[in-house]
Amino acid sequence: MSTISKTDATYVMGHSAGEEVRLQKLGQLLYPSTRYLFEKAGIVPGMKVLDVGSGAGDVTLLLAELVGPTGSIVGLDVYPAVLEVARVRVRAAGLNNITFIAGDIRNVSLDDHFDAVVGRNVLMYVADPAEVLRICADLLRPGGVMAFQEVEWSITERVDSMPSVAPLVQQAATWMIGGFRQARAEMQMGFKFPGIFLDAGLPLPQISLDGIAGTEADWVGYDFLADALCDILPKLREYGILAEDLDATTYIKRMREEIIQQHSLFPMFFMAGAWIRKA
Asked: Which CATH number characterizes residue 166's domain?
C-alpha cells in the first residue's frame, strides 16, 4: 500500500534496487510475531486469504504455511515491480495456490469473499484506515477473520530513548522515527486500533503487542537496519533530519560493537496486532 491518495503518507523508505532484500530481512525479523498473531486470530488450513499490501511476499509465504495446500492466498499490492519478486519467490517455493494482483484495496475489483483478510505495515500509510478496514470487512464471509499488524512507533521512540540503550541506537532511532513522522505516517496505530475498528463499524479488536529486539552479534536486525538507513537516507536529507554524509554499513558496525561492549539490548521496534472475527 502507498501513496495513491493525495493525503496518504509518503512511503519514506523509497523503492531502491535492493528493496526486496530489505523486505525479506524484515520478514525474518517479524516472522515469529506475525505468525503468532495469525494463529491467535484463527487462520487455519483450508482458508482463502487476502494479503493486503503483500510486497515481496513474506506475509504471503507465511500464510501459505498456515493454510496449507488446501487453502489459497491472493496477494495485493500497488507496486507491480515488487510483485514480480514475490512471484519468483513463490515459484521457487513450489507453491501453486498463490496469486498476486497489482492494485489498491480502495479501488481494485475482487470477485470472491475471503475467509481471512490480513495486512502488515499498511494502515499507517493510508489517509483513512477505517475506510480500508470497512472495505476489507465487505470482502469477508460471515465468520471470517481480519488481522492487521503495524509498527507502534510511539513505544519504539520511548524505549529507544532510555539511558540503557546504546547511544548509536538512540541516534539511529531518532533519524528513522523523524523520517516517518515527517512523512505523515501514523505513529500510534496500535493505540488507535480500537477506535479505528469501531469507526469502520467493526467490533473492538483483540490486541497484541510484541517487541522486536536482539543481543547476539549475528542478529539479522543489524543487516536490516543498515539496508533501511541506506533506503531512507534520501528522505532524511530532503526533510533536513540528517545533513552529514553517512556510511550506513560503517555506522551499523560501530553500533554492533557498542552494543556488544556494553552488553546492551538492541530494541528494533514494537509491533501492535489487532484481530476480529466477522459476525
From this structure: 3.40.50.150
